[in-house]
Write a structure and sequence with these properties.
The chain is an alpha/beta fold. α5 links the parallel β5 and β6. The chain has two domains: 235 residues, DD-peptidase/beta-lactamase superfamily (Beta-lactamase, 3-Layer(aba) Sandwich), CATH 3.40.710.10; 175 residues, D-Ala-D-Ala carboxypeptidase C, peptidase S13 (D-tyrosyl-trna(Tyr) Deacylase, Chain: A, 3-Layer(bba) Sandwich), CATH 3.50.80. The protein is 37% helix and 15% strand. The chain starts with a helix and ends in a 14-residue tail after the last helix.
């Protein structure tokens, strides 16, 4: 609970004082030598001596306030947080770190279910494996170049899906809540680019390939019960509008802005992509003779590439995922991780890859079990220490800091901490369910110091810890952290 950190600081103080003691002994010896008849030591005039006595001494509390006060502040923080954690069910943990070093840890190494905060592990792994600048590509190709005037494409128009989880139409975006992050790849712009090549007549059909990933429409580790409860579209390498066909027929347009729309998962995402892109082109006066369909077994190398559209960079995709708590994006990233590491674009390959990526960094791995990319499966496990270490891992920390929503202002935590000390001072990913709650993020104190918070609590169905108790815990935690400082102001240490 922060004692080891305080002990190290006190050790520093001891090393600092030892030379001072030696110097004092030497001065005493010189004074003694003068007393017993050795060469006189030049001294300051009396007035100068008086002024010197008013100056700060070589070793004083004012010269190293942080060294002396940090242990006191840390002990106070540890006592407050220890008392706070005594009110939390035992299947919980809390780690607080300053500059990447834990200053408080309560049950920090026990494995717990992190809920949807597994998405942070997925995002960090993507940053490490694929890089923050990685982009998905959707490629259009044909058997031959268009006619010289570009007005006739006498072949099929082939679309190669690249796994982009954010390829969306304007009509779909309009269905999303107003506070939903609109980071996306614009499918309408892809249609505009196609028309911009003067492709106004397609003698064949729009055909879509989804072979980059497997054809599993859901996550392999999810039970049928879980699949029926989770609101997610059908997965595909040729994903459009997050795998949905559109609104349910009985849905009213009179809805609350924060309510998710009731959508129908696509029965065949590739066919849905082809048909929707066909519609987008025809809406721009492109004539297409044959019905949209999918294809496989044709290599891009055997075709003429016409154009491609790139997704936003991975750093922005992760921001969209965390701000919106986007399950589909997380699971699509997992498939891309599998494809990148093993050539297999399937969920199981991706989750195995995540474990390997974390292991390769040297970060703590004990207690980590990744079953899916979104945290839907309650079998996922992590420790508070692992989550804190990932958040403070320097290669990914700047991107996570940018990706986490601001408490009281953005995304899923826009309302959660509006009236607490966390509001405006905390950037975090949180998770709440009937069985678990978690928080991982960065908090800025009144002194401008940044702390990393990792918290988890698990409980039985129905909860032995109420929402009110959780809110009270977060409110108290915020107040303790906000007032923390690694050192007291010098003015408080001056003699009266």
């Amino acid at each position: 609970m922060g004692r080891s950190y305080a002990a190290r600081v006190l050790s520093i103080i001891k090393r600092f004082t030892m030379p001072i003691l030696i110097l004092g002994a030497l001065i005493a010896a010189l004074v003694a030598s003068n007393k017993y008849g050795y060469e006189d030591i030049e001294t300051l005039p009396k007035s100068s001596q008086m002024n010197a006595e008013l100056e700060t001494q070589i070793f004083s509390i004012r010269r190293a306030p942080e060294l002396l006060t940090s242990p006191l502040e840390l002990e106070k923080l540890a006592a407050n947080l220890g008392s706070l954690m005594s009110s939390v069910p035992s299947n919980s943990c809390l780690v607080v770190a300053v500059d990447g070093e834990a200053v408080f840890s309560e049950r920090g190494n026990i494995p717990l279910y992190p809920g949807t905060n597994v998405k942070v592990i997925t995002g960090a792994s993507a940053l490490m494996q694929l890089g923050p600048e990685f982009t998905y590509q959707t490629i259009l190709a044909a058997e031959r170049e268009p006619n010289e005037d570009g007005s006739l494409l006498s072949t099929d128009l082939y679309v190669f899906g690249g796994g982009d989880p954010l390829l969306m139409t304007d009509s779909y975006i309009e269905l999303l809540p107003e506070n939903y992050s609109k980071i996306r790849t614009n499918a309408d712009e892809l249609a505009d680019l196609t028309v911009g090549m003067n492709i106004l007549f397609i003698q064949g059909a729009v055909r879509v390939d989804e072979s980059r990933y497997d054809e599993s429409r859901s996550v392999e580790s999810w039970s049928e019960e879980v699949q029926s409860q989770v609101m997610i579209g059908s997965m595909s390498a040729s994903l459009l509008d997050q795998g949905y066909d559109g609104l349910k027929s009985n849905y009213s347009s009179q809805r609350g802005t924060d309510d998710p729309p009731p959508l129908n998962p696509s029965r065949d995402p590739a066919i849905r992509f082809a048909a929707s892109f066909d519609d987008l082109l025809e809406a721009r006066n492109v004539i297409i003779l044959e019905a949209a369909r999918e294809f496989s077994g044709i290599d891009l190398e055997d075709l003429v590439q016409l154009l491609s559209v790139e997704s936003p960079p991975m750093s922005e995709i992760i921001k969209q995922m965390l701000v919106n708590d986007d399950t589909m994006t997380a699971e699509m990233i997992v498939k891309e991780l599998g494809y990148s590491r093993s050539g297999e674009g399937k969920s199981s390959s991706g989750t195995t890859g995540i474990t390997e990526i974390i292991r390769g960094t040297g970060l703590p791995e004990t207690g980590l079990l990744v079953i899916d990319g979104s945290g839907v499966n309650s079998g996922n496990q992590a420790t508070c220490k692992i989550m804190q270490e990932i958040a403070d891992y320097e290669p990914v920390k700047p991107f996570l800091q940018e990706a986490f929503p601001v408490a009281g202002e953005e995304g899923t935590i826009a309302e959660e901490f509006r009236n607490s000390d966390f509001a405006g001072n905390l950037k975090a990913k949180t998770s709440r369910s009937a069985t678990a709650a978690s928080l991982l993020g960065y908090f800025t104190t009144d002194k401008g110091e940044q702390m990393t918070i990792s918290f988890m609590v698990n409980h039985q169905e129905g909860g032995n810890w109420t929402e009110i108790e959780l809110d009270s815990f977060y409110e108290t935690l915020g107040s303790y952290l906000r007032s923390f400082s690694s050192g007291l102001p010098i003015e408080m240490l001056e003699p009266k």
